[in-house]
Design a protein that fits this description.
This is histidine kinase. With 351 residues, this protein is an alpha+beta fold. Helix content is 42%, strand content 26%. It contains 10 helices and 16 strands.
Length: 351
């Protein structure tokens, strides 16, 4: 929990026990003084993107508080707030504001209801997509197993069909793992269990994960020097997103080319940019590449084991962390993907 500047002036008016009670309620809470100055906030408030320097940034929340102050009656309402300064991610918050006449302050209780309604809708659509996508590798495995049985007297054919079965089995395994990863992302809010992460640490971990794949294709992954910038969120999810961009860049690039990772800082936003010299993406495809199971080149995806979930996961992670993902691409030239995230803090370095 933390106390605003106003609390230091008026600490004799409110018992410390009152603040302890607020912090133990099991939900986010504010104590708001006249002028909409925040005197107290529980620890989880800082992840909701509604406060700045003890001031409430949501016009809808300010309006609700003023109604309560004017009527001196308890009010409940719902507001939407952005998850970060950029991107399309939103939170749907349920607000209960209670007027305390003895101290002329307002207690605001906040519940994040966005996840429950969103998860229900996403799961419904997701199940339909999964059932369609699983049919292809499962059907292929069934046909190939029949082919192996019918060619039992032809060793060369058995080897050929068995090899194809291995490829389809790997594709099925990757698809299931992608589904599991996306399901986990949709079931959790990284800003509710957020920790601090240096950008350099996240990138280096993701690069290590693709080293075997890049070495096999003779692709050099170049990592530029990073500033000492910290972001807030779930480290595993952020590494997964960067890893997916790197894996895509490697899979869709010719052998013996270069993939680079760099950063850019502007307006309290850090960009992690992955650039390749690959096949590129036509302008008409750019709006769809972040859809679940969408593949720009289905034949190439089958060769590389692509599931059509990688970029969907990247977009989901960026949005859930209050950021966004952007792409620049040109066919036969290459692509650049940028994950843009709010900067939580800096620790010197090349800023």
């Amino acid at each position: 929990m933390w106390f605003g500047r106003e609390e230091n002036k008026n600490s004799n008016e409110i018992s410390p026990i009152f603040f302890k009670v607020l912090s133990e309620l099991g939900q986010d809470a504010l104590l708001v003084a006249p002028g909409e100055v925040v005197r107290f906030a529980t620890e989880g408030i800082e992840t909701l993107n509604i406060l700045r320097e003890n001031r409430i940034m949501s016009p809808e929340l300010v309006a609700l508080i003023r109604v309560v102050r004017r009527t001196q009656q308890t009010h409940t309402g719902n507001i939407e707030v952005p998850r970060g300064p950029i991107g399309e991610g939103l939170r749907e918050l349920t607000i209960r504001a209670i007027y305390l006449s003895e101290i002329e302050n307002i207690v605001v209780l906040i519940s994040d209801e966005s996840e429950a309604s969103r998860v229900h809708e996403v799961r419904r659509d997701f199940v339909a997509n999964i059932s369609h996508e699983l049919k292809t590798p499962i059907g292929a495995l069934s046909l190939l197993s029949e082919a192996v049985l019918s060619a039992s007297d032809d060793p060369a054919s058995v080897v050929k069909f068995a090899t194809r079965m291995q490829l389809e089995a790997k594709r099925l395994t990757d698809l299931v793992q992608g589904i599991i990863n996306l399901s986990r992302l949709q079931d959790s809010d990284p800003l509710q269990i957020a920790t601090e992460h240096l950008i350099a640490d996240l990138v280096n971990e993701a690069v290590d994960l693709v080293k075997t794949t890049s070495d096999a294709k003779g692709i050099q992954v170049t990592v530029n020097e990073f500033p000492s910038v910290v972001v807030l969120g779930d480290g595993e999810q952020l590494i997964m997103a960067i890893h997916n961009l790197l894996e895509n860049a490697i899979n869709y690039s010719p052998q013996n080319t270069n993939v680079s990772v760099s950063t850019s800082l502007a307006d309290e936003i850090v960009e992690i940019i992955v650039t390749d010299q690959g096949i590129g993406i036509a302008e008409g495809e750019l709006e769809r590449i972040f859809e679940r199971f969408y593949r720009v080149d289905p034949a190439r995806s089958r060769e590389t084991g692509g599931t059509g979930l990688g970029l969907s996961i990247v977009k989901h992670v960026a949005s859930k962390h209050g950021g966004e993902v952007r792409v620049w691409s040109s066919p036969k030239v290459g692509s650049s993907f940028a994950i843009r995230l709010p900067i939580y803090s800096t620790h010197g370095g090349n800023e």
